[in-house]
Amino acid sequence: MPPTKRTPDSEQDTAALADGVIAGNRRVLAQAITLIESTRSDHRAAASNLLEQLMPHAGNSIRLGISGVPGVGKSTFIEALGNHVIDAGHRVAVLTVDPSSAISGGSILGDKTRMEHLSRRDEAYIRPSPAGSTLGGVTRRSREAMILCEAAGFDVIIVETVGVGQSETKVADMTDMFVLLLLPGAGDELQGIKRGIVELADLILINKADDDLVELAGRAAAEYRNALRLLHPRSPNWKVEVKRCSARDGAGIADAWETVLRHHEMLTSTSQLTARRAAQARDWMWSDVSDNLVEALKSDPQVGKRLAELEAATSEGRMPPTIAARNLLEIFLERHKDSG
């Protein structure tokens, strides 16, 4: 029987874990992220303690969100960009999100194997995590994982989402710059991408602009530039740029990184970075409030007594879901009002 992995069960253990993260110990960093992703109540308390200790050491990175249509080459692009950024003197952490099975809940977590060269570099750290039931293309604890990676000394954090879709905009609420990767093509391409995600993009890259697709990629870029004139930019001080690149050949990667640096300089010089991260912190707080309230409601013993009955009533069409939901909330709130 394999040994049980030890997790922090005291403030002393958590302090030792924090010290290891700050020292840049990769094994400790992996253990810390595993802790914050745990759903056990005792682990959640230890994770909160750990985050409180590491917050003062975080926040000094460029946070990038990367999304794109299936097959666009997100992993290839991130590997090319990561290698370029490391060669420029940075340390890169990549947080990838793999889709979870709706049946088993399992996830392949194959992104690390698709970034074979980058994963071997000492200046890079790649952490694949399952999306679980969380919408938005990220995991429930992606924000916390970013804090840990920053505390470990990584100054460029890349968050790769599951894949493009209407709900794939959550990553824009936790990063400084949102990069959208698209395939060469024009006209019909615009119909396949939701307006909401295009409006949030700070940089659009037409990837796979290589071989006989270079001209097609150029036409696609022109189509998107025209389309962007009809949309409101995310920032009044930044005009969204559309560029071509070939992650396979490394073409356009240096230009993309230079655009990231210019965007970060704009955010810093106009104080938008401070304002954006403050808004992200508030969003993080309310998101956690929502998650914790739902968990508290589901675990409430009085709610549990009526849950099966109300679920059956809604499943059989005897009660509208809205009324069942209100009944559950009333049971929960009445019990806590009495206990208060």
Model description:
The chain has a seven-stranded parallel sheet, with helices on both faces. The chain is globular. The termini are far apart. The chain folds into three domains: 1-57, Up-down Bundle (Single alpha-helices involved in coiled-coils or other helix-helix interfaces), CATH 1.20.5.170; 58-272, Rossmann fold (3-Layer(aba) Sandwich), CATH 3.40.50.300; 281-339, Orthogonal Bundle (Helix Hairpins), CATH 1.10.287. Mean pLDDT is 84; it is low at 1-5, 100-110 and 132-138. Helix 10 links the parallel strand 6 (203-206) and strand 7 (241-244). It has 340 residues and is an alpha/beta fold. The chain has 14 helices and seven strands. The chain has helices at residues 11-22, 26-37, 41-54, 74-87, 111-114, 116-119, 142-151, 188-192, 195-200, 214-228, 253-269, 272-299, 301-315, 321-339; strands spanning 62-68, 92-98, 124-130, 156-160, 177-182, 203-206, 241-244.
Write the SSE topology.
Layout: H1 11-22, H2 26-37, H3 41-54, E1 62-68, H4 74-87, E2 92-98, H5 111-114, H6 116-119, E3 124-130, H7 142-151, E4 156-160, E5 177-182, H8 188-192, H9 195-200, E6 203-206, H10 214-228, E7 241-244, H11 253-269, H12 272-299, H13 301-315, H14 321-339
Parallel strand pairs: 1-4, 1-5, 2-3, 2-4, 5-6, 6-7
Helix pairs in contact: 1-2, 1-3, 2-3, 2-7, 4-11, 13-14
Summarize the structure.
With 340 residues, the protein is an alpha/beta fold. It is 51% helix and 12% strand. Helix 10 links the parallel strand 6 and strand 7.
